[in-house]
Write a structure and sequence with these properties.
Layout (H helix, E strand, L loop, with lengths): L5 H9 L8 E2 L10 H17 L1 H7 L1 H15 L6 E4 L2 H9 L9 E4 L5 H14 L2 E4 L10 H11 L3 E5 L11 H11 L3 E4 L11 H4 L3 E5 L11 E5 L1 H6 L11 E5 L2 E4 L13 H17 L1 H19 L5 E3 L10 E5 L4 H10 L2 E2 L1 E4 L4 H7 L3 E5 L7 H15 L2
Parallel strand pairs: 1-13, 3-4, 3-5, 5-6, 6-7
Antiparallel strand pairs: 2-8, 7-8, 9-10, 11-12, 12-15, 14-15
Helix pairs in contact: 2-3, 2-11, 4-11, 7-8, 12-15
Length: 399
């Protein structure tokens, strides 16, 4: 789908029961699920209640496996390279644990990596003596690939890891250029695509990444509590596997030896929430039917409208930086904690969320702020909903 019409938007909204009750501008938190996703989840829960959990999984095995094809198509990969995991962070940790870090090893990352990732790096530093090096930002914001290149040349890192889109900003980082640096140097590369999947077309071949972690609940419009991990053929052929590999990811072949799965299944756990697995598959199929480029074009257009209008309100500061900005909009209001604005908007049935300094210390300190309001439209939102949110912010802040 390349040309969007009001009929497209009306159809998407008709598929989305939540649109009747809320102006949902928190898609970067968890998007409203469309009916095919809801039906996939509830139908399977009902089936489990009628015939049993293991038996229901067996009956739906073909649908489960088709889901791998849908997820692979979302990122330009093959089904063998996809693992279903609990969430994007869980997938990221599984990938990170594939590396046998030792004291003095260097991990290169950015100043805008996701807060959980930053904490995990610090934990590796504290427990194993790993050194964490943050690449410089470009003047306009976002990681500077030349800074990564210089660090890679001088420090010979064990790993480079980058969050494509941080949780606390509309910034889109240049992960493709970083991937080129890593490929040229032969350094393993992990991309956190938690906020990217569903709003940016992804081709892992172009990214040149060893791993890419993603979630269902955000711009892919799936359920909470499920995600997926891409593992490249290069990583699989190296024999990479998680530190605590599960019986689904490996076979215990003799008393003192195990054999890992040949595919990315080595990153999976035996116990699956199959209703959510099927919900994620349905969300991927729905996203592909909509067209990720169509979703990006509309969502980013609505975000641009939102930024421009918020920027005209006295006392409001729009915070997003970077050459490329996505469907996440952040703002702060003079003298107001973000929580008070988010609460007041929720009372008007407008869903937004607070972003706090602890979610992105480097970014927030550079901007001189403690809190921000995050608004994130998606393709099924309307111009009227964006304008309603702007009007509410204007009223609440006396603008």
């Amino acid at each position: 789908m390349t040309t969007l019409t009001t009929d497209n938007v009306a159809a998407w909204r008709a598929d989305t029961p939540g649109c009747a009750h809320r102006n949902h501008l928190n898609n970067a938190g968890a998007a409203l699920m469309p009916r095919p996703v809801i039906d996939a989840i509830t139908d399977h829960v009902r089936l489990e209640s009628e015939i049993g959990g293991y038996e229901a999984a067996d009956l739906r095995a073909d649908e489960v496996w088709r889901g791998y094809d849908h997820l692979a198509e979302m990122v330009g990969a093959q089904a063998r390279n996809i693992a279903v995991v609990a969430n994007a962070t869980a997938g990221f940790v599984q990938a990170l644990s594939s590396f046998d870090f030792k004291p003095g090893d260097v991990i290169v990352t950015t100043r805008c990596d996701y807060t959980s990732n930053q904490i995990q790096y610090l934990a590796l530093s504290t427990r194993l003596g790993v050194e964490i090096v943050h690449a410089d930002d470009l003047p306009e914001g976002g990681v500077d690939p030349d800074s990564v290149r210089a660090i890679v040349r001088d420090r010979q890192p064990r790993l480079v890891a980058v969050s494509w889109i941080p949780t606390n900003s509309g910034l889109v980082q240049d992960v493709e250029s970083v991937g080129l640096v890593c490929e040229e140097a032969g350094v393993p590369y992990i991309v956190d695509a938690c906020q990217a999947v569903g709003q940016i077309s992804i081709d892992v071949t172009r990214l040149r990444c060893d791993y890419l972690s993603a979630t269902a609940r955000k711009f892919m419009r799936g359920p909470r509590g499920i995600g997926f991990l891409y593992a490249s053929d290069r990583a699989l052929e190296r024999g990479d596997h998680p530190l605590f590999v599960d019986m689904r990811g490996a076979r215990w072949v003799i008393a003192r030896a195990y054999e890992v799965a040949h595919t990315a299944r080595r990153y999976e756990d035996w116990e699956f929430p199959y209703a959510l697995v099927l919900g994620q598959a349905a969300a991927a199929r729905y996203a592909l039917d909509v067209g990720v480029e169509a979703a990006r074009s509309r969502g980013w257009g609505l975000a641009g409208r939102l930024r421009a209008a918020l920027g005209t309100i006295p006392g409001i500061r729009v915070l997003d930086r970077g050459k490329t900005r996505c469907a996440i909009v952040t703002m702060t209001a003079d003298g107001r904690h973000a929580d008070t604005i988010v609460k007041a908007l929720k009372e008007r049935r407008i869903n937004t969320v607070s972003s706090l300094r602890e979610f992105g210390i480097y970014d927030f300190d550079a901007k001189g702020i403690e809190t921000a309001v995050r608004l994130s439209p998606h393709y099924y939102n309307t111009e009227a909903e964006v304008d309603e949110a702007v009007g509410a912010v204007r009223e609440l802040t006396g603008g």
